Amino acid sequence: MSYDEPLRLPAAAIPDDCRDWTSGRAAGWSAALPPRWTFLRVRRSIAGAVTTLAFCAGAWAAMLGGLWPFVAAGFAVYVLWVLARPELVWAGAPALLLALALEAPSQPWVVTAVVAFVVVVSWAVVAVRLRARGAQIDQALDAAEDGTARTPDADAKVLRGRFLLPLGVVVLALGVLTGATAGLWGTGDDRRVSWVLAFYLAGLGVTAIASAWLGRRRAVALRRAPAPVLRVLVRDDAQGTTEVYASDDLAALRPLFTVDLTSYDGDEEEEEEEEDDDAAADGDDGPDAAGEEADEELERLLDAADDDTPGPVREAVLYGAPFDGAEVVVLSADEDPDQPPLAEWSAGGVRPLSPGAGARRIAKEKAREEQNRQLAEQARESVVDRVPAPVRRWRAGWLDWVAAALLVQWGGWLAWSGVTGSELSLWKLALVVALGLYGAVRVPVKLAWRITADRSGLWVTGLGGPRHVPWDDIRSVRRRSFELKLRWRDDDWSVAAPRWAWFERRQGLVHPYDAMAAELSAMRTDPALRPTGESTVPERGRPLWPLAVVLALVWAALLVVLG
After folding, report:
1. Coil/strand/helix, residue 192
2. Which of 177, 310, 395, 518 could be 375's S-S partner, Cβ–Cβ 3.0 to 4.6 Å?
3. Alpha-carbon gap, residue 373 to 376, rounded angstroms
4. Euclidean distance between the first and final Cα of the chain, in Å?
5. Confidence of residue 382 (pLDDT cuts 50, 70, 90)
6. What count of Cα atoms within 13 Å lies in the side-chain half-sphere of residue 525?
7. For residue 127, which phi and psi values (nearest 5 degrees)?
């Protein structure tokens, strides 16, 4: 289905007085967005990395500079709020400034001034971002005019926050436990670091609980009364995130915002369980049949997620006035024309895209699709032109060895800093032992992985020996970011190595993982391209556990020597 022919909703599924959210009306909504410097759309990975860096800096300042653990951990949590949960900044900024004022006499004035300046400026930036939400709501309401309707799931149980709330409680409890046991650590530095960790975990727990409460509160408010409705177009990107477009953007050229949606419904699950019980009472294989259908549906979803192409454009009704962080409900045409419309609600807040950011997103997507297409063609041509081989093998190369060296260097540095220079405390010993076990398992795979292809399937090396994967069981072979991932019917396998996408594009280079994934994908889809012989035992590779045992023993010996 081409993008200029969206999958249509049945007329009966569209509420009365539902207006089209055309590009002209949507332009006003986009113009009401705050500037990019308000951290409008920070990647989750970047937010997590910056917050982790702030925590490490705070722990270092608390250990060496005498900074209060509450201030050190509070600043790291505050950074997370600025980037990902701006609603909490209103409470976090004054509390952090008050703590800085109380601690100012014991700290250099430069440190206090710099931290206070960062807090005040970020507070002002967040104020600009939150103030813009009112203008976004007004623009959306103007576009909807008087069109309102009850959400399709208005009478269903609201499940928003069902994951974050218990997670937050667990993390908060871990923080309390860490603080309660802080006095058990050996040295004063260890105790200060444990208090920083305790406050940090408590802050993360509070963040998760507050996020669950905010999301649930907005979700309940959306279902309590008739909500504004707008006709839009939607499409799922290659990662499964839903992109929302103006109703007349048939070519899907400029997404307005993205949102993570879910269609999980506890009531439906209960009904299915009741049907299974009834079937079992009648002597039918209800549970088995339901389990098989669930497995097939899961495989379909995983196949769609591993397919590096976006889904088709679908007509949809958007319930709720969208704004930065809003909760919405989307009723859209199902990709299967035989299925009824699909009702989904947000599993996270709306994430707006400025016109420039939306255009760049589509451009990157098209460039990725073109690269994948070229790689697939090149791989197919190389396999077709090559003399059929009885067996094909791929193994770890110099990039994998670099990745292993970096892992060993990082682990060695942490171990050296943990066992030298001060008394070896319990938590440091636990850390270096855990690092050793992780390295002993991962380094052999990075150094000596091997995949062998023959006419029966693939042989994938592992700690316990090569594992056979029939061709019919293979679901996908993809390179995602730094990772090469092979997925088959009941398991998966992955390995990671460095890459620099910009340099590769500029120099016209192809990452070894890309070439391998393209060739294996071609063999998977076309049996004529597969090897013609049977591999021998030596060709399939050896178990990697002996190397893991050797590395673990070497690590233990180093700890004894350094300790």
Report:
1. helix
2. 518
3. 5
4. 65
5. low
6. 12
7. -60, -40
* Alpha-carbon dihedral angle through residues 377, 381, 383, 388, given to the nearest 10 degrees: 160
509 token code pair = 């280079």
The 3-class SS string of 202-248 reads HHHHHHHHHHHHHHHHHHHHHHHCCEEEEEEEEEECCCCCEEEECCC
Q: Which residues contact 76 (CB under 8 A, 6 or more apart)?
A: 51, 52, 54, 55, 57, 58, 200, 203
- Which sign does the torsion angle of CA 248, 253, 259, 262 carry? positive
DSSP string covering 453-485: EETTEEEE--TT--EEEEGGGEEEEEEETTEEE
Q: Helix (H, G, I), strand (E, B), or coil: what is residue 153?
A: coil
For residue 287, give the DSSP letter: H
Phi, psi torsion values for 497, nearest 5 degrees = -150, 155
Q: Which residue has the tokens 């009741």?
A: 274
Evaluate whether 246 touches 232 at the Cβ level (below 8 Å): yes
- In angstroms, the Cα distances linking 384 to 274, 388, 458, 523, 559 are 53, 8, 19, 10, 53
Q: How far apart are alpha carbons 307 and 262 in whole angstroms?
A: 19
Which of 290, 289, 285, 241 has the alpha carbon at shortest distance from 268? 290
Parallel/antiparallel/unpaired status of strands 242-245 and 227-236? antiparallel
Buried b (16+ CB within 10 A) or exposed e, 477-500: bbbeeeebbbbbeeeebebbbebe
Residues 154 and 512: their CA atoms lie apart, in Å, by 51
Nearest to 329 by CA among 254, 223, 439, 402: 223
Both tokens of residue 267? 């009531």
Partners of 413 in the β-ladder: none
Closest CA to 476 of 237, 236, 238, 234: 238
> What tokens were used for 255?
């997404």
Q: Is 530 helix (H, G, I), strand (E, B) or coil?
A: coil
In whole angstroms, what is the distance from residue 321 CA to residue 146 CA? 12
Amino acid 329 reads V
Q: What is the pLDDT of residues 421-430, one digit of tens each?
A: 555 556 667 7
Do the beta carbons of residue 67 and residue 26 sit within 8 Å? no
Backbone angles phi, psi at 317, to 5 degrees: -115, 125
Answer for the pair 243, 364: CB distance below 8 angstroms, yes or no.
no
What are the pLDDT digits (tens) for 189-240? 667 788 888 999 999 999 999 999 999 999 999 998 999 999 999 999 877 8
Residue entry with tokens 């005040």: 120
Q: What's the chain's length in residues?
A: 563
Return all residues near 285 (Cβ < 8 A) that are at least 6 apart.
279
Cα 504 off chain centre by: 24
Structure tokens at 539: 């060709």
CB 97 within 8 A of CB 119: yes
